[in-house]
């Protein structure tokens, strides 16, 4: 069952839920002075993390929200306007987070709460319009896999094959989650396949384990990794390196 779900996730990321390099296209065109940059996107992600932390929501909700936003800007004709206007870009990010909270959280955060945070910058109608724009632009395809979801499915397949202490396993899961959160902030990683980031996060996290635990996990990983259509080892290695050097600033 888990293996089938993982196969579906990998198929989804290769087809309906692909994300293209929309900021590179933006940079290569005649850019306006107010055009959105990589740093602008990182600031939006950090704001989203701060928002969910304040409300004690799941950080995975931010990964879902940015997945929606990145895919929308990859495929939508409305993207050109948003990428030339910080205000519109930020509004779409709020709309994406609004959707992600609705679909991933048990608590409701109403549009008027977002509007109040903007201090008059956006109305409830603005936020709801952005929500509809994203939903229709994505043809209501909202359930794309996140890197953490792929990673946890993959790890669950090898869990029964290893005899690692429970506290070590929990440490591994926490480290993988942290690595996937770093990837959400970094645009170069965010447009990669989610499964590539998942594997890179797992391998990076394994580096922090003891030699014996690491070897046992590597043996288990090697027994199943070829059963799925992951990216090439070179791509996974490059993503691992990128995760190591991704800027953290004050991220936590």
TrEMBL record:
Native source organism of the sequence: Cyclotella cryptica
DNA damage found in the keyword field: no
SUPFAM superfamilies (UniProt xref): Cyclin-like
Keywords: Cyclin
Family membership: Belongs to the cyclin family.
Tagged with keyword Cell wall biogenesis/degradation: no
Pfam families, per database record: Cyclin_N
Domain spans labelled Cyclin-like: 46-136
Domain of life: Eukaryota
UniProt-recorded name of the protein: Cyclin-like domain-containing protein
SMART domains, per the entry: CYCLIN
């Amino acid at each position: 069952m888990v293996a089938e779900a993982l196969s579906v996730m990998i198929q989804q990321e290769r087809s309906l839920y692909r994300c293209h390099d929309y900021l590179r296209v933006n940079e290569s065109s005649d850019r306006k002075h107010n055009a959105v940059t990589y740093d602008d996107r990182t600031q939006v992600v950090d704001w989203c993390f701060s928002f969910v932390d304040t409300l004690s929501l799941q950080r995975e909700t931010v990964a879902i929200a940015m997945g929606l936003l990145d895919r929308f800007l990859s495929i939508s004709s409305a993207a050109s306007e948003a990428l030339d206007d910080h205000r519109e870009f930020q509004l779409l990010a709020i709309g994406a987070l609004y959707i992600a909270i609705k679909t991933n959280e048990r608590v409701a955060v109403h549009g008027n709460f977002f509007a109040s945070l903007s201090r008059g910058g956006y109305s409830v109608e603005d936020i709801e319009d952005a929500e509809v724009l994203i939903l229709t632009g994505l043809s209501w395809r909202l359930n794309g896999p996140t890197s953490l979801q792929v990673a946890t499915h993959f790890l669950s397949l090898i869990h029964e094959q290893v005899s690692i202490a429970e506290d070590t396993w929990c440490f591994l899961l926490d480290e993988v989650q942290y690595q996937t959160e770093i990837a959400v902030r970094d645009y170069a990683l965010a447009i990669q396949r989610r499964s590539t980031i998942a594997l890179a996060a797992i391998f990076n996290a394994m580096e922090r384990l003891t030699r014996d635990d690491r070897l046992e996990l590597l043996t288990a990983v090697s027994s199943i990794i070829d059963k799925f259509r992951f990216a090439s080892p070179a791509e996974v290695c490059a993503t691992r390196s990128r995760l190591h050097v991704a800027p953290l600033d004050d991220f936590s």
